[in-house]
Amino acid sequence: MIVRLSRHCLEGNLAERARQCIDSDSSKTKTAFVPFSLDTAPVSGVIKSNAFPVECPSEVYQFEASGFDVKGAWSKLRQHIEGKPIVAALQRGKIVAMGTLDEVRRAFADCLRSDIIRVPVTDNDLSIPDGIVTRMFTEAIASGFAAASELNLHRHDVLWEPRATSEAVAYGTRFQIHSAATISLRRYAGHQYVVVKPSIYATTESGVAPDDDQDKELKRQILSRQWNKKFNDALNLWRNRLLSKGTTVVEFPRNTASPFRFAVRSVPIFAKIGDKKAKFPIKLPAHFGSSVTQNGLRLPEPQLRFSTKSGTGFALDTQPIRGMVGNRPFDFTLTGKKFNPEVRVGVVCPGRDAPALSRYLAALHNTKAPDSKDEYLLPYPGFAQAFGLPLDVPMPGDRGWMEVSGPSANANVSSGATEIARNLTTAVRALRASSNPDVVLIYVPGRWKSWERFESESETFDLHNFVKAYCVQNGVTSQFLREQTLTKPYQCEILWWLALSFYVKAMRTPWVLETMEPDSAYVGLGFSIDRSAETRAHVVMGCSHIYTAEGLGLKYRLSKVEEPTIRNGNPFMSREDARRAGDNIRQLFFDATNRLPSRVVIHKRTPFWRDERENAKDSSKGWRTFLTSRWSR
Questions:
Q1: Parallel/antiparallel/unpaired status of strands 401-404 and 343-350
Q2: Is it true that the peptide bond before 407 is cis, omega within 30 degrees of 0?
Q3: DSSP state, 76?
Q4: How far apart are CA 295 and CA 155, in angstroms?
Q5: Distance in Å from the first CA to the final CA of the chain
Q6: Does residue 390 sit in the same domain as residue 460?
Q7: Residue 520 maps to which CATH number?
Q8: Residues 499 and 529 in one domain
Q9: Helix 575-593 vs helix 610-619: angle between axes, to the nearest 10 degrees?
Q10: Of 496, 511, 526, which residue sits at a domain end?
């Protein structure tokens, strides 16, 4: 308490002296952070992976070149190496590259400012999935595979067969389907692996690639039911296509006596799976041991808690949809007590799209049989039957339905996007004032696609993010719905998704985990950087979703990170920022529950640096803190 009061009340020299005292005290009590560990259990099975051991080059070329210290340097670098057997990247003000020495020297002859030297590749370089060296090595090995096996290469990591094997239709366009594999480089437990993930690559007869929505739909149609046997068959086809028995040496560039060679083993790694309830444990053959390098533990599906249909007790199930259909949502007793006895939806939609959208939303009241994921999905019974309370959806012309206009006919990308954003936020504000719905549905027609996002030297704009941020700041829960969703084939899945979204965003709770500690808080941290700002003037915003153990959202907060540190393009909190985050978690939990948490789980997508770990822990004295992170490409 004294620490928080000193930070809030003191100014100038007194504030600085207090900070020094706090830092001095913190440095005397460093926290020992313990990694997660798995309990031992009898082995009940073995899982085959798609990760193949690889020995990577130990060095890359490095040199200095003029003209790469200004904005647009990456684009300029790509122009220098386009069409050449070279992979290169910018790292700490210098260029790192792979290729033959003569080819690299010729490519940068007009701007070379130093000798080209070899520098070692460290374990840390290879431990970052989206790091500079990892990406270079991925592109080099994928290029080597493509050259050796007469395959095409898309981007830097997707290999695909030149000959199509089938056809499929997505949103009215017919595509040729080619067998493909995504190549990635990963480091597990101190060792390097090439991960081969079977996939597909699609083009029209004229060679045009699908857009993002078409690509997702094609992969849903073809890959969503590629379970263990089919996946394993596809993996074996690619293993035989790329690798020889034993060890395959992949050279980049191929047939150049290059020093950049990857030695890939043809046998993937395996994991032995333990099960504390195993009735018949197995013993692995001795010759199997060298490939079984990982350990896993079979865990039972977590139980979810629902209300009974009478509202007088609770029921348990491991499948959320089955649990709701067979019982009632967890907070059903609130419905019976006339607390929010319905879910009210407001709609923002262009006038010309109102009839089609109105007909589509009417389907939320009707039944729909599964047309996808039939091994998991149950029939959609209608909103009232699923959730035990009515869904109030307005009709066009009602007070809860706001019409918006699109951009002017002569609007360019920037002005059109700004106009749409202004019209949408104005409609949301008017809807809140007129009917104050539980959740606002924002319909985005396909003809607005060219205005949904743009990027210039001074600005980056995303319509979805802009409108979502406005809604968060004004206490409005929102749900985007795009025109193409109305015609997707798997409508039962979509109706369940949309209905559940409306229920949850109306601040209702469909189910909770049965086994969580009651005084736990779960915090998700994310960061956004204004990359158009001047160097050292980035504006970094931290977002935190805070949940109780029952899955109840306490607060979605936007707050400025005052003293961010940028490492490898990713933002990290300073000591003071981490302290403030811990204080905010404490306060938000107390405001919502009138008690302090006994346990806090904090998750973010980048590692926790020392200042973040120590000071988040320092701010959370009195509770147990668990820090989890996940790198994402």
A1: parallel
A2: no
A3: H
A4: 34
A5: 40
A6: yes
A7: 3.30.420.10
A8: no
A9: 40
A10: 511
**What's the CATH number where 503 sits?**
3.40.50.2300
Q: Which residues contact 337 (CB under 8 A, 6 or more apart)?
A: none
Give the pLDDT score at 626.
66
**Amino acid identity for residue 609 in this structure:** W
Side chain identity at residue 556, one-letter code: Y
Are residues 350 and 488 both part of a single domain? Answer: yes
| SS3 call for 46 | strand
**If DSSP codes are grouped into helix, strand and coil, which group holds residue 185?**
strand
Nearest to 623 by CA among 593, 589, 592: 589
- Report the candidate in 590, 572, 612, 576 with the shortest Cα–Cα distance to residue 7: 576
Residue 311 per-residue DSSP state = S
Contact at 8 Å (CB) between 368 and 319?
no
Q: Give backbone dihedrals phi and psi of 199, rounded to 5 degrees, phi first.
A: -155, -160
Nearest residue to 451 (alpha-carbon basis) of 417, 418, 425, 484: 417
Contact yes or no for 248/205 (Cβ under 8 A): no
CA distance 253 to 142: 11
**The two three-digit tokens of residue 66, written as one number:** 């003029």
Does residue 620 carry a pLDDT above 90?
A: no
Domain count, the chain: 4
Residue 297 in domain: no
Say how many CA atoms lie within 13 Å of 491 toward its Cβ. 15
Residues 527 and 415 in one domain: no
Indicate left, alpha or beta for 67 from its phi (over 0: left) and psi (-120 to 50: alpha). Answer: left
Q: Please state, in angstroms and rounded to a whole number, the distance separating the CA atoms of residues 34 and 32.
A: 6
Q: Residue length, the chain?
A: 633
Give the C-alpha separation, 540 to 221, whole Å.
39
**Is the distance from CB of 419 to CB of 408 less than 8 angstroms?**
yes
8-state DSSP, 459: -
Same domain, yes or no: 57 and 15: no
- Beta-carbon contacts of 199 under 8 Å, excluding residues fewer than 6 positions away, are 158, 180, 181, 182, 219, 223
Going by the DSSP 8-state scheme, the letter that residue 324 receives in this structure is H
- Which residue, 455, 479, 511, sits at the end of a domain? 511
Whether 14 and 80 map to the same domain: the answer is no
pLDDT in tens, 565-584: 777 667 788 777 877 777 77
CA dihedral 223, 225, 231, 237 (to 10 degrees): -60
Q: Are residues 343 and 440 in the same domain?
A: yes
Closest Cα partner for 438 from 397, 487, 389? 389
Q: How far apart are CA 122 and CA 430, in angstroms?
A: 57
Interval 88-116: pLDDT, tens: 999 988 999 999 999 999 999 999 999 99
Residue 321: give the domain boundaries.
304-511
Q: In the structure, what pLDDT confidence band is assigned to residue 553 with cuts at 50, 70 and 90?
A: low
User: Is residue 158 domain-resident?
Assistant: yes
Q: For residues 435 and 348, state if they share a domain.
A: yes
Cβ pair 360, 491 in contact under 8 A: no
Q: Which two tokens stand for residue 507?
A: 């601040």
